[in-house]
Amino acid sequence: MGPRVIVQDAPFDAASLLDGFGAGAGAVVTFSGLVRADDGLVALEIEHYPGMTEAALSDHARNAVERFALTDALVVHRFGRIEVGAAIMMVATAAPHRRAAFEAADFLMDWLKSRAPFWKREIGAEGPRGWVAAKDADEAALTRW
Amino acid sequence: MTMQVAAIDVLYFAWLRERIGVPRERVETSAATVRDLVAELAGRDDWHAAALSDMDAVRVAVDQRLADMDAPLAGAREVAFFPPMTGG
């Protein structure tokens, strides 16, 4: 069974998704990204590329499983409007030992930041603002791997 | 030499979609590479020209895989243009 990838507009329930995840592994790491309360921000609007998003996430999750010898992996990413404080995405990795689980989660996140086809736009109290610009630091982070 | 004309779905996301005014369009093209297709599209009207004027700020996918300006279009069905991605 391959890693599980979920792309949806609805909120997700992390606890139920993680119920039974990595059963039998020695280590499970989860990371969640939330909408940060920056400068009057009320929400993010996330656009994605249906079809490519799911395929790219699945490919990369499989890469992570292979590279870090994971026993399981999960990638969840939302699109559409997401309010401040709500979860945008989550990755979970399971491995026999903690280092592989931590590193695989970090690897998945670095890749998601600048290679997964999502685009964020900020929504303030006054209405839509501009598109979030990609950060050079995120691009540079990929060279770590 | 024969020019192969193919119908390709061209998709735009985020600010490219907004500047061009449509999320997708079907184009009949004999473009051999992404670079040729960009030149053709930029010649369509001012909106396309403006959106595709700085390709350093644009990423490309051919059939839903990241590609570059030199990528061949033989057999391609779908080409997408979008800004650098901001996931996570």
Can you walk through the features of this model?
The complex is a heterodimer of chains A (145) and B (88). Chain A has 145 residues and is of the alpha+beta class. Chain A has one domain: Aldehyde Oxidoreductase, domain 3. Chain A contains four helices and eight strands, in the order βαββαβββαββα. In chain A, strands 1-4-6-2 form a four-stranded mixed beta sheet, with helices on one face. The longest helix of chain A has 18 residues, at 98-115. The mean pLDDT of chain A is 95. Chain B is α+β, with helices and mostly antiparallel strands. Chain B contains three helices and five strands. Chain B has a five-stranded mixed beta sheet. The longest helix of chain B is centred in the middle third of the chain and has 9 residues, at 34-42. Chain B starts with 5 loop residues before the first strand and ends in a 6-residue tail after the last strand. The A-B interface holds A 33, 47, 49, 51-52, 55-56, 77, 88-89, 109, 112-121, 131-134, 139 and B 11, 13-15, 61, 64-66, 80, 82-88.
Features:
heterodimer, A: 145 residues, alpha+beta, Aldehyde Oxidoreductase, domain 3, four-stranded antiparallel sheet, 37% strand, B: 88 residues, Ubiquitin-like (UB roll), five-stranded mixed sheet, 25% helix, globular
Q: What is the architecture of chain A at the second tier of CATH?
A: Alpha-Beta Complex
Shape of chain A: globular
Low-confidence stretches of chain A: none
Main β-sheet, spatial strand arrangement of chain B: 2-1-5-3-4
- SSE order of chain A, as H and E? EHEEHEEEHEEH
CATH topology of chain B: Ubiquitin-like (UB roll)
β content of chain A, as a range? 35-45%
Helix content of chain A: 25-40%
Main sheet attributes: strand count, strand direction, barrel closure of chain B: 5 strands, mixed
Number of strands of chain B: 5
Any idea how many domains of chain A? 1
- Share in helix of chain B: 25-40%
Overall mean pLDDT of chain A stands at 95
Supply the CATH superfamily name of chain B: Beta-grasp domain
- Helix/strand-derived category of chain B reads alpha+beta
Strand content of chain B: 25-35%
Question: What CATH architecture label of chain B applies?
Answer: Roll
